[in-house]
Amino acid sequence: MKVAVLSDIHGNYHALENCLQDAKKRGAEKFWFLGDYLGEFPYPQKTMEILYKFKEENDCVFIRGNKENYWLDRKYNPDCEWVDGNSTVGAMKYCYKYIEQKDLDFFESLPISRHVVIQGMEPVLLCHGSAENNRQKLLPNDEKTREIVENYHEKYILCGHSHVQGVVLDSDKLVLNAGSVGVPMNSVESSKYLMLESDGSQWKYDFITLPMDVDKVEEEIRQSELMEYAPFWSRSVIHVLRTGEISQGTALSKAMEIDEYKSPWYLTPDECWEKALEELGIG
Which is a Pfam family this sequence falls into (predicted)? Predict the structure, then answer.
C-alpha cells in the first residue's frame, strides 16, 4: 500500500494538481492532507474545488493547519486583529473574501491532529505543527521537539508547517516533514510531498520533488487582484518560489525591525516593507 502525504498547499492549485497526478501515477491508494490549504495564491476556490472533487473519488484524510485558524477566527470574531490591517495581511483579506460558508464548515470539521491505524501497520500520527498546537514547529536537532514527541504513543509522526521537507527526528520515533506543495523552502521552482509505502508492518518513505512552472504561477499572481491587496507579501512569495530562500515571515520580521516595532504586525507600513524587500534582495 502507498500513501501520499501533502501539506501546505497555500492555494497553489497548479502545484496541487501536479502533485496529485504524480502520486496517482506512483500508485498512491490513500491521501493524507496536513493543512494550510489556502492563503498565498489567487483564486482560492480553484484549490477548494480540486480538493472537494478529489476527496469524493479517493480515500482521503484531512487535518487543520494554522491558516485554517485565521479563517475561523475571522468567522467568529468580525473584529479580529487583522480585519483592519493594511497590505501586510492583504493576502488573508483577499482569500477570506472568496472563502464560502461550505469551506468554513469544512475547515471547522477538521481536527488539528489525527491518529491513523491501517490494519497490520504501525499507527501514524498526523499533525500540521504538533499534535496539540498547529502553530508549533517540529524541528531537527531541537530538544523541545524531542520532548514533545516523547509523549506521543505513535512511532511514526508526520508534520508540515515549516515548509522544509526532510527527516526531523529518527530515533525510537520517526518524525517526517512532508514539505510544502505550494511554497517549499530550501527548494528552487519545485513542489514537495511525501510518499509512504507499507512493507506489511513498517512504513518506508520517499521524499518527492516535482518541478513547478513558476513562470505560469508568477504571471497569475501578478495579473490577479491579489497583487493589489498584498503587493509586498506576493513579491516575497514569488521570491521563495524562485529561490527557496527568505520566507514571508522573515521578510515581515525585517519590515517590523525597520519600523522599530512601532506598529502592530498587521499594520507594518508599506514603506518599511519596500525597504525590507530591497535590503533582502527581493524584487
Answer: Metallophos_2
